[in-house]
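Hi there,

I know you've been waiting on this one. I reran it after we fixed the sequence typo, so this is the corrected version. Both the input and the resulting structure follow.
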Amino acid sequence: MSGTECRVKRALLSVSDKTGLPDFAKGLVSLGVEIVSTGGTYKTLTEAGVPVLYVSEVTGFPEILDGRVKTLHPAIHGGILARRADPEHRKALGEQGIVPIDLVAVNLYPFREVAEQGGAWDELIENIDIGGPSMVRSAAKNHEDVIILVDPGDYGAVIDQLKRDGRCSRNERTRLALKAFQHTSEYDACICAVLSNQPDAQNSQKTQSIPGPVVEKVSDLRYGENPGQAAALYRDLREMKKSGNSFIDAAQLQGKELSYNNWLDADSAFKAAQEFGLEEPCAVIVKHTNPCGAALGETIEEAFNKALSSDPVSAFGGIAVLNRPVTENLASTMTEAFWEVILAPGFSPEARQIFETKPNLRLLELHETAWAIFSIFTPKI
C-alpha cells in the first residue's frame, strides 16, 4: 500500500562505488529479492556468486552506444515510477508486462574524481552520467513506493530494517529521497563548475551565467561563531584539487577539533599567505579575520619574527600560517606565545616534540603543492 509499506521484491543495483555491494546484494537475496543489474555491477555480483538478471533481460534491448544507453527504457523507469496504489498505473504495468522495481541503489560515474586527477576533456565528458541520475531522480520522486540508495553507508541500516520489519519506513524513505536529490544536485553543480573552467567555456559569453559557490558538506562543527549557534564545514566544489591538496584536507597533527572561528581565521591567513607565492619564506598571523602581521624573510624564522613584531599583543591566541616547514628553532620561538592554530607545509620531528608540550595547540600540515594551485579550478568570470 502506497505511503505505508515498501516491501521489496525487485531491486536494481547499478553503482560506480562498489563499496559493500556484494554483502548488500546477498542480504537482499536472503530476503527473497530479485536483483537486476548492469555492466560492471553485474560483473561484480556474478563473480561474488549473487544471482542477478542483466538489464537487457528486463528491457529486451541490448546496451548500445558503448553503454551510453542501457537503462533508459520504459521497462526500467515504468517499474520505478509506477504508483502502486493507482489502479491505472497497475493496469498499465500489467498490459506492458513491466515488473515493479522497489529498490534502486545507484551512485554515479566518478566525474569529480576524474576532474581532480586532471582528466582530459573527452574523459570528463564520458564520465557525465545520464542513466544514473535519471534512475535516482525517478526513484526519489516515487519514494512513497521505492527505496533509493546513493550512499553505501546506508546499505546496512536498510537491510536491518527490511529484516526486522519486512519493509522500509516512510520516514526512512523520505530521508533517503532527500539525500538522493542532494546527490544529483551536487553532481550536476560539479559538472557545471568544472566544465566552466575549460578554455572554450572561459572564452564564451555564456560564462557570465555561471552560478555562485557550489558546496558539499564535509562535517558538522561543535558550534558556530558563538556557542549557541550551529555550524558546519563545507567544501566549494569550484576549487577542486588533487586529493590532499585542498585546504580542508590539511592533516591535523595534534590539538582539539577546529571550531568555526578557527577555520575562518585559518582560511583568511592561508589565502593571505598565498598572495606572496612560494619564492620567499612567508609568515602571516591573523586573529578574528584581522591581519596582525605578514612578512617575508630570508628564512622562515626571520619572516615569522617580522610578522609577530608587527603587533605582538593582538597576535595572542591567533592563527599563524607559514609557507615553509617549521624548524626546531622556530618551534621554540613560537611556544613562547599562545596560538590557536599553526598551519605549515611540514614540521620537523624536533618541532613536533616541542609542540607536544602544548597539547591544545592545533597543528595543520598542508602539502606545499596546495599553495600554488589554489585558483586552478576557480572560474574566470
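Quick highlight: The CA atoms of residues 139 and 200 lie 35 Å apart.

Best,
R. S.
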